[in-house]
Amino acid sequence: MIVASHPEHIRNHDVGYPYRQDSNLYYLTAFEEPESILVFRPGKTPETVMFVRRRDRERETWDGFRYGPEGVEKEFGIDRCYPIDEFEKVAPSLLAGVESLYYRLHKNPEADARVMSVVDKYRAEGGRTGRGLLAIHDADELLGEMRLIKSEEELVDLREACEISAQAHLAAMKFTRPGVTERQVQGVLAYNFYSKGSAREGYNYIVASGHSATTLHYNFNDQVCQDGDLLLIDAGAELNYYTGDITRTFPVNGRFTDEQGLVYEKVLKVQKQIVDFVKPGVVFKELHEMGASLLTDALLELGLLSGRKEDIMSANQHRRYYPHGIGHWLGMDVHDAGLYVKNNEPRPLEPNMCFTVEPGLYIPADDESVPKKFRGIGVRIEDNVRVTPNGCENMTSSVPKEISDLEKVVGTGWAP
């Protein structure tokens, strides 16, 4: 198996984005430097081989400390380590006797070129020795299955990431009032993430007020929060490469209108029903289907759709107001690794699988087919759950979501 680091992301000619290691490489090594490749050879000697940047006094003066090959062997328990510029020279010998290679193409063009150069050399030599062509398999599928069931050590980090995220959402609720900007609310989230030990956010902040909440991945976050509008916040902190992913929707002025409350209560009821349904043996696909069915019921009850439920769902009319699924795996990536379908069958849930439950309804502001009083209302409620032997653990339950609880806390004031 070969796993490479992410490429470094460049903002302009001389300023880079903060670097984050490839999740699979960090999962296997805990090594965070760019320009690094791991070759894992189960049962062979050496079993783990890494290629990393050389020590370089000048570059370290500008960019910071490097472990170098010797430091990686000593500090990370790698059997053998070489400079990254020797990869093409050394790696072919590491493939001796190998029939299959696990490597994910198209994540890092520079690493792809290096790996394929080594593979081409191996294949060219194989033609003269009688060996067959080296088959390449997707390493992400293999590692995704390893990452899907969380260990107790992983759960410690994931729970803490969820709790940091939860407390940041609570602070944002307390801060919010008419006249603040979405960007200021984002600043409260960021302050709480970083001050409690998070290294970064798990994904781009969504702080969407008013009808912007009907845009699923809104991230301009540049509007003023208006009296009478709802504010939808979707944000999560990352801790030790594990991330929370929470969404809450609440009124900017601390009081739901009748129409906002009606839509909100429908979504909340669905969300709680699905969380309560989670347990080992339930097929993940069932949760998606359950969410779509219950939300279609809600749309009919609200008068936003009419007709026979079966006809509405077969024609996907409900997707106008609920266009996404009920959730996704959660862990080192916000949309974490792991198969939803295994051996051509939807997979059942198992203990220590972690995922989100996030139903929502989004009514476009320009939708003239619905009563005007509902237009522009967007509601999503998202929690992070772990499957337990008998049900599930809600790792983000400390964030208020009942209407009465939200109205007690929004706008009550927050200061660092």
CATH architecture of the largest domain: Alpha-Beta Complex
Unreliable sequence segments: none
Tell me the number of helical segments per DSSP (H or I, 4 or more residues long).
Answer: 12
Count of spatially separate domains: 2
Write down the CATH class of the largest domain. Answer: Alpha Beta
- The CATH superfamily name of the largest domain is Creatinase/methionine aminopeptidase superfamily
Alpha-carbon distance between the termini? 47 Å
SS-derived structural category: alpha+beta
Shape: globular
Query: Main beta sheet: strand number and arrangement?
Result: 4 strands, mixed
The CATH topology of the largest domain is what?
Answer: Creatine Amidinohydrolase
CA gyration radius, whole angstroms: 25 Å
Write a compact overview of the structure shown.
By secondary structure, this protein is of the alpha+beta class. It is 37% helix and 16% strand.
